[in-house]
Amino acid sequence: MSSEDFNKRLFKYLDDHQKDYIQRLSDAVAIPSVSAWPDHRPEVFRMVQWTKSFMESLGIAVELADVGEQKLADGTKLKLPDVILGTYGNDKLKKTVVIYGHLDVQPAQVSDGWDTEPFVLTEKNGKLYGRGSTDDKGPVISWLNVIEAYQKLNEPFPVNVKFVLESMEEYGSEGLEDLLKSLKNTFLSGVDYVVISDSYWLGKEKPCLQYGLRGICYFFIDVESSTKDLHSGCFGGTIHEAMTDLIAVMSTLVDDQGRILIDGIYDEVAQLLPEEAEIYKRITFDVKAYSAEAGVDKTIQQDKEQILMHRWRYPSLTLHGIQGAFDGVGCKTVIPRHVIGKFSIRIVPNMKIATIEKLVEKHVKNVMEKRNSPNKVSVKLEHGGDYWLADPNHPQYVAARRATVVVHGIEPDLTREGGSIPITLTFQEQTGKNVLLLPIGASDDGAHSQNEKFDVSNYMNGMKVMGVYFQEVARV
Ligand SMILES: C[C@H](N)C(=O)N[C@@H](Cc1c[nH]cn1)C(=O)O
Ligand SMILES: [Zn+2]
Ligand SMILES: [Zn+2]
To answer: Which residues are listed under the site Important for catalytic activity (predicted)?
Structure first.
């Protein structure tokens, strides 16, 4: 049978089973596998088991790798979720593809402003709302659905597959780097390609392939003033308050133009070369749609090239929150005794995590010295992940481009991603092979945000691209 004929059968099979795929995603979204919430760790374990059972039902050999414990800020220890290592096929004559994805999700609560229950997949107008629908349960399940479709069609699978599915990605992939290093000469030996579907198109219509990611350095600034919370009427004006110190420090990190104010932070940023500047001009990107997706009236930069460069090739600093601060309704007149400020810096070529860590420590120390405060202040790099860049002309990218054209009838844009997938560089280094980012979600999916969703059309077309990608990559 020609590959065109098989693709027709594959696409029909997938289309005919749309309902089953939505139900499967719904079952996965119903497990609130939030890696950042320590009390939800059993749910993360449940998600690992759910996925393991699904994989085993497809004949994938699954091994669970123990990656140790996580040490929490209060000193307590928590077991890290096992990493799923799956092996599907072991034919020496076939190429071997590693598929990486994650099963954990960002926190979500209705009170954050969701229109629906975050852990109940809700279909409305062709969109599937739910936490993890696009990031990253939908794409992970898509890979598995495709394997099932090949089986049901009695079609030999074109490649061997090795799965690495973790459940701490949203917390910096704790434990995974050491595991991959230990697997270099065993599980990861003899692989040919690595593919990751855990990112988003640049727009809503046009598919893309991605060859770059920003890295991330996530910091905690810990300030402790007293042994207990205090009455602001009795003690206000007489003591150095933890929150006042913390806000003073946090307000010195970034200016109103998004420029990071930490001395030396831009020193290692790669210079923009004329060839690189040209790339941005050719990319399809709608600035107005971007503002609308963000729900803002105005972005800092106005032109397409500048916005893309500030997403992909310049660092940014975001203030995320303050643990321990009063954030309830009403007017509690408390002086919090202990607060932890959280911020992250997205890093780009050629910034080094160790340098960033030192510069941040120095900056906080300098600001605090000027404040004459007796409070205990410490800075901690909670987690760090490197930036990553690959060669978009590699044959694996050519294979994925062909697959995209077969399904979407259009050449994908070659883009980068402003977010981070901390383990990507480790895969490249430990396998010595090309890594491809194959996004199937749309730019307005709202990963990490309220009302995260995955379009049914992206789910269905994403599986078709994956199905054809396996054939194309088997040939290169
Ligand atoms: C792009 C990917 N789907 C993602 O959302 N990555 C996270 C990774 C992370 C690192 N620390 C916390 N989360 C991100 O870019 O924020
Ligand atoms: Zn995410
Ligand atoms: Zn993700």
So the answer is: 231
DSSP 367: H
pLDDT in tens, 38-50: 999 999 999 999 9
Torsion of CA 273, 278, 284, 290, to 10 degrees: 40
Q: Which domain holds residue 186?
A: 3-214+388-475
Confirm or reject: Cβ of 439 under 6 Å from ligand 1.
no
CB count in 10 Å sphere of residue 413: 18
Three-state DSSP class for 23?
helix
The pair of three-digit structure tokens given for residue 399, joined into one six-digit string = 């294979």
CA distances 107 to 29, 33, 410, Å, are 12, 9, 36
Q: Which helix (H) or strand (E) holds 282?
A: helix 274-282
Question: How many whole angstroms separate alpha carbon 122 and alpha carbon 456?
Answer: 11
For 149-165, write each residue's pLDDT tens digit. 999 999 999 999 999 99
One domain, residues 26 and 115: yes
pLDDT in tens, 12-43: 999 999 999 999 999 999 999 999 999 999 99
Is 411 noted as a catalytic residue in this protein?
Answer: no
Q: What's the token pair of residue 293? A: 């997706």
DSSP state of 409: S
Looking at residues 256-276, what average pLDDT do you find?
A: 97
- What separation in Å is there between the alpha carbon of 333 and the centre of ligand 1? 36
Same domain, residue pair 381 and 392: no
Tell whether ipTM is more than 0.90: yes
The Cβ-side half-sphere exposure at 371, using a 13 Å CA radius, reads 22
Residue with tokens 């913390």: 246
Is 169 one of the catalytic residues?
yes
The reply to whether ligand 1 has any atom less than 6 angstroms from the CB of 447 is yes
Q: Is residue 287 part of a domain?
A: no
Domain tally, the chain: 2
Q: One of 104, 192, 245, 445 is an active-site residue; which one?
A: 104
Question: Which burial class, exposed, middle or buried, applies to 115 when counting CB atoms under 10 A from its CB (0-12, 13-18, 19+)?
Answer: exposed
Question: Which of 2-23 are b and which e, b meaning 16 or more Cβ less than 10 Å from the residue's Cβ?
Answer: eeeebbeebbebbeebeeebbe
Name the active-site residue from 169, 245, 417, 472.
169
DSSP string, 48-112: HHHHHHHHHHTT-EEEEEP--EEE-TTS-EEEPPPEEEEEE---TTS-EEEEEEE--B----GGG
